[in-house]
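Hi U.,

Before I forget, here's the chain from the pilot set. I'm dumping it here mostly so it's searchable later in email.
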Amino acid sequence: MAARSLEIGPAGIRTARTIEILRTERGLAQRELAARVSALGRPMTNTMLSRIERAQRRCDIDDLVALAQALLVSPLVLLQEAEGPVTSFVQRR
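Structure:
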């Protein structure tokens, strides 16, 4: 039996949109963010990131954590509804 792809639900779509908003707020190209994620040990191409942002590829928990780290936010921020600029949720180091 062939595995069927699972539909991406509202939380996944919301997360995809928040990732795109944060990336653009920071002035990063998809290629730059994908490189940051890869440098953190989670290999990601700009094509993979593009598909995540368009909700055409599932963002698994490891992707979510690495993307949050590369964007300097908590993973919880990526799961919440983006309202206006998301820069107020930047992690303090």
